[in-house]
TrEMBL record:
Entry EC no(s): 2.7.1.12
Listed pathway(s): Carbohydrate acid metabolism
InterPro entries per the UniProt record, alphabetical: P-loop_NTPase, Therm_gnt_kin
Keywords associated with the record: ATP-binding, Gluconate utilization, Kinase, Nucleotide-binding, Transferase
Reactions this protein catalyses: D-gluconate + ATP = 6-phospho-D-gluconate + ADP + H(+)
SUPFAM superfamilies linked to this entry: P-loop containing nucleoside triphosphate hydrolases (SSF52540)
GO biological process, one term: D-gluconate metabolic process
Assigned protein family: Belongs to the gluconokinase GntK/GntV family.
PANTHER family per record: GLUCONOKINASE-RELATED
GO molecular function: ATP binding; gluconokinase activity
A GO cellular component annotation in the UniProt record: cytoplasm
Protein name: Gluconokinase
Length: 168
């Protein structure tokens, strides 16, 4: 599958990194890890248990849009992309951009984030992710999957869906 650009999106702990890495390998395209492009001030803010706001995310999204454009052969991007406006911003860079939403409950996200010991993101911020989340279901180029399925199964679902979309 050539030139596929797909964002693995969702709240903290939904599995973006785990699914994104395997999907990129399956598709043979680079992985752009969205968290690596947050300015240091954003990471510090989250570390201090303060939620990011639209201003904090604006420069980051612009940076991610640039990064997508820098990979014309296709890429998998992990990015929370919680709000409609954020997804619109990324679609400006790649008009046919696809999004796979790893959907899970707040309780499940909390359990996963709380059980991680090697990550900067504090469990106390999980509720704010759900407050910010605007469900992408129904937007063009969006697949919603159950993030509690096995990672391999989620990757299979994404690959099948992307393959069908490429045939159209
Ligand atoms: N499908 C899955 N089933 C069970 N556990 C999973 C699944 N996907 C991810 N996990 C586990 O859940 C935790 C969160 O996953 P991961 O770090 O990939 O999420 P994330 O969305 O990238 O989170 P963040 O955005 O906060 O970095 C990890 O401990 C990971 O091993
Ligand atoms: O938009 C945001 O609030 C952030 O991107 C967060 O979602 C975190 O960075 C991420 O989930 C932790 O890895």
């Amino acid at each position: 599958m050539n030139r596929v650009h797909v964002v693995i999106m969702g709240v903290a702990g939904c599995g973006k990194s785990a699914v994104g890495a395997l999907l990129a390998a399956r598709l043979g395209v680079p992985l752009i890890e969205g968290d690596d492009f947050h300015p240091a001030a954003n990471i510090e803010k989250m570390r201090q248990a303060l939620p990011l706001d639209d201003n904090d995310r604006a420069g980051w999204l612009a940076r991610l849009a640039e990064e997508l454009c820098a990979h014309p052969g296709g890429a998998v991007l992990t990015c929370s992309a919680l709000k409609v406006a954020y997804r619109v911003r990324l679609r400006e860079a790649v008009p046919d951009l696809k999004f796979v939403h790893l959907a899970l409950s707040q309780h499940q996200a909390m359990e996963r984030v709380a059980s991680r010991t090697d990550h900067f993101y504090p469990p106390s911020l999980v509720a704010s992710q759900f407050e910010a989340l605007q469900d992408p279901a129904g937007e063009p180029g969006v697949l919603v999957v159950d993030a509690t399925a096995h990672v391999a199964r989620l990757v299979d679902q994404a690959v099948d869906w992307l393959g069908r979309a490429a045939e159209r």
